[in-house]
Amino acid sequence: MKIVLSKDFEVKVHFVLEDEKLTMLSDAKRDYAKNTLEFKGEKKSVYADLGPGSDNIVVVGLGKYEDLNHDVFRLAANIAAKTLETNKVKEASVIINKYDGYCTRKMTKSYIEGFLQNDYIFDEYLSKKTVKNVETISIIPIEGKDESAELALEETLGIMEGVNLTRKLVNTPSMDMYPEVLAKIAVDELSGLGVEVEVFDKDKIKELGMEAFLAVAEGSEKEPKFIVMKYLPKGEDKPAITLVGKGLTYDSGGYAIKPADGMYTMKADMAGSASVVGAIYALAKNKTENNVIGIIAACENMISGGAYKNGDIIGSMKGTTIDVVNTDAEGRLTLADAIYYAATKVNSSCIIDIATLTGACVVGLGEYTVGAVTNNKDLYKEVKKASKRSGEHLWLFPSFDEMRDLLKADFADLKNSTGRWGGAITAGLFLEHFAEEKPWVHLDIAGPAYSDKGWGYLPKGATGIPVKTLYDFVARKDMPIDEKYHKN
């Protein structure tokens, strides 16, 4: 789908509030829509008059004014795109109205995103490729807001390219997406955008003392890769927001082997790393102004004669020893070394790690919500604001010393699993140990990163969550990355 500005096509798309006068319709059609079809502009409702002899118009309801938000705009545009697609409309003009309290540029971005969300497909492995009907959408800006619309279009295209890159990485089967491939794609996609990408091989990983990461990787014939991506528009001497993504390109569970149903979607266990690649792509593509570093410890968790075992005691880059209670609690082991590297080897103002970490998070919060653990509530509040603006749901778990005590082991410094109760919290607190008191937020995306059915305007398979949140958080011009967050 191509998005253009100010081009007049025969088919028109309008968005209306509930009980708003349908002035875009003729008297007869207005009466038919309101009285016969009972179209009143409720949220997600549609009136369509398309085809020969029609008015060639689509009207999508936004619902009540008091319930408006940018996700309502995204969803309405996505519904319009699906309606055009179903009716095999190739091109349409979209009329945008001004609403008090809503920034024109941000509202335009939301509408554009809603249309682009419907355009994503993953058909690389289908013998018959998918052909989309809608070829061109023209956004008709609010009068006098042409420049705002141009800026909104350019930024949204960059963001959605990053989101779709993440989706492609996650949706690709593990037979074709393993550490070496992930590292190569990071180099290929980011280097041309001014991002410095460095890939460490197994020898370098050993040299750094990343014993926890290497223990997880040992069971696979695929060599682990440690990937560092630096986008530093403010210069190397300024601190950076550091994003750390879980990079398990496949997780069998190791000797704590998963059941077959549990392994089927484990190609998605690298969604955290994919979201870091996608976010940095979008940030660099849009030439945002803040420093950001991405870090990925990429490997597979497999079974072999050399694989680590339940009951092993392993080391870590920090020097902390870890009792391996469960080899299927592997992501936190790879992240332990990656987060410690972020805290000690690069100039991080703060650290955000992103991981499909625990089933417990899905049990607690469901499929649609990202769970968070933090050592710094001020930092979390900023991430929360970014998630709200982005339409990605986020919820903070409580954390306290009694939960940290559960991580203490009898024969090692820590254990990597504490059992069923509060598992999403204790997994996050395990990672906290390696953040070295840097302001840090952990995002558990096990629920929303991958969907068997899709929801709202998001597709089946990889959703791209939380790329938009990460982008919004880093891209803000007022982000105080040169200042320390208040410790709390």
Describe this structure in words.
The protein has 488 residues and is α/β, with parallel strands linked by helices. The chain folds into two domains: 2-145, Leucine Aminopeptidase, subunit E, domain 1 (3-Layer(aba) Sandwich); 159-475, Zn peptidases (Aminopeptidase, 3-Layer(aba) Sandwich). The protein has helices at residues 27-36, 70-86, 104-117, 146-171, 179-190, 202-207, 211-217, 260-263, 271-285, 331-344, 359-365, 377-390, 401-405, 423-432, 467-475, and strands at 2-5, 12-17, 46-49, 57-63, 91-95, 136-140, 196-200, 225-231, 240-251, 292-301, 313-314, 322-323, 348-355, 369-374, 393-396, 414-415, 440-444, 450-451, 461-462. The strands form four sheets. An eight-stranded mixed β-sheet has the order 7-8-10-9-13-17-14-15, sandwiched between helices. It has a six-stranded mixed β-sheet with strand order 1-6-5-2-4-3, covered by helices on one side. α3 runs parallel beside α4. Residues 481-488 have low confidence and may be disordered.
